[in-house]
Amino acid sequence: MKKIVIFGSTGSIGTSLLNIIKKDKKYFNIQLISANKNYKKLIKQAKFFNVKNLIITDQNSFLKAKKIIKNKNINVHNNFSIFKKIFKNTKVDYTMSAITGFQGLKPTLDIIKFTKVIAIANKESIICGWNLIKKDLNKYKTKFIPIDSEHFSIWSLICNSKYKNFEKIYLTASGGPFRKLPLKQFVNITPKKALKHPNWSMGKKISIDSATMMNKVFEVIEAKKIFDLKYNQLEILIHPQSYLHAIVKFDNGLTKLLLHDTNMIIPIFNSLHQEENYKIKSYPLNIKTLNNLDLKKIDKNRYPLIKIINSLKNEDSLFETIIVSANDSLVNKFLKNEIKFTDISKKLLKFISRKEFKKFIKIRPKTINQIEKLADYVSLKINTTSV
Questions:
Q1: Can you list the pairs that 278-283 forms with residues at least 24 positions away whose Cβ atoms lie under 8 Å?
Q2: What is the CATH number of the domain that holds 325?
Q3: Residue 70's CATH number
Q4: Would you list the DSSP string of 144-203?
Q5: Residue 385: phi, psi to the nearest 5?
Q6: What integer pLDDT is reported at residue 385 of this predicted model?
Q7: Same domain, yes or no: 367 and 220
Q8: What span, in angstroms and rounded, lies between the C-alpha atoms of 249 and 163?
Q9: What percent of the chain has pLDDT over 70?
């Protein structure tokens, strides 16, 4: 049986993974699942999949779960400091890290030594702590698989290729819900409108990031780190149908493309069964879409946050943490109707250009604590001062 760990099992990625496992339940032994507040769903998952270890990070939810669970075979924990006790001298086969936000960074790093494969769907971990992750991946000989559809597509195109000289890698973006909206109407965009993504069903935060195109800025940063590229080797193309996910152009003249349905089940399924002959149902090849990919270059007037990429250096730095934390705080303000949609980009570009933050471009992350402290400081600045 394949031993599995899932961080964030009650979220969309975690739930999708469990739905895949459900179909071949007898081949999997889920050893640990986690949630922040959704303890009721977590308990249901634990009972259905016979999971013995639960982590609930929210204190109130943890206490409520402790009162509900009468089964002595289920251990409920309040933090991630129990890996050594649970896994001892054995490695689990596969870990999915799907906790959202900076809360996912420490458990992602901590689990690497205890797992053979780690699939990461947490952007903050890769963007802010990739050099720390990479160091531990090498140290403990743990295999890494990116779960974001674009990065999984690039990984799939190049993972078995002996030829590693990439001339250019293209990530695709749908353009979000306002791809055709006149620019003068952007000031009237409400959270409700911004949350209506045309192709994907996603959480609130990532839906807003898709509307501003900030998610693609993040994905470019991730791709640069994961595949050891330079920023001038990466480009974003608008592709409204979200059918083509990545293009890799090698410098030997070959170009590879990867397509799949607009469904995160496909990258999750293939990360779980990457070396096994399992099948999944999918739609037939969409020839109509293939004949009209409608690829276009990014309009920086429509998506001004794309300009951030030009301010980034090829070396890992703490400046990425500032960008992520500031954006998180501004998106949260927009969702609370405290700022306008257009303020997200205006305020973010202004904020990260401050002299006090520019110096972090030259500072490389050394510890998780350093990253978390800086993220908290930036969040406090955004929320207590005028930007």
A1: 278/24
A2: 1.10.1740
A3: 3.40.50.720
A4: EEE-SHHHHHHHHHHTT-S---EEEEEEEE--GGGSSS-GGGGGG--HHHHT--SS----
A5: -125, 160
A6: 80
A7: no
A8: 11
A9: 99
Q: What is the pLDDT of residue 341?
A: 97
The answer as to whether 312 is a domain residue is no
Q: Rounded to whole angstroms, how far apart are CA atoms 17 and 273? A: 11
**Residue 129 belongs to some domain of the structure:** yes
What is the Cα–Cα distance from 260 to 50, expressed in whole angstroms? 33
- In three-state secondary structure terms, 297 is strand
C-alpha span between 125 and 332 (Å, rounded): 20
* Together in a domain, 37 and 100: yes
d(CA 177, CA 174): 9
Boundaries of domain holding 247: 151-307
**Of 131, 147, 163, which residue sits at a domain end?**
147
Domain tally, the chain: 3
First to last CA, the chain: 53
- Shared domain check, 133 and 39: yes
**Neighbour count for residue 289 (Cβ, 10 Å):** 16
Q: What pLDDT does 387 receive?
A: 72
pLDDT for 174-229, tens place per residue?
Answer: 999 999 999 999 999 999 999 988 877 778 898 999 999 999 999 999 999 999 99
Asked if residue 223 and residue 132 are part of one domain, the reply reads: no
Among 101, 127, 147, the domain boundary falls at 147
Confirm if 111 and 24 have CB atoms less than 8 A apart.
no
Residue 369: half-sphere exposure toward Cβ, Cα within 13 Å: 0
- Three-class DSSP category at 145: strand
Where in 8-77 does DSSP place strands (E)?
Answer: 28-35, 53-56, 75-77
pTM of the model: 0.94
Q: In the β-sheet with 244-250, what is the strand arrangement from edge to edge?
A: 255-259, 244-250, 166-173, 234-238, 296-297
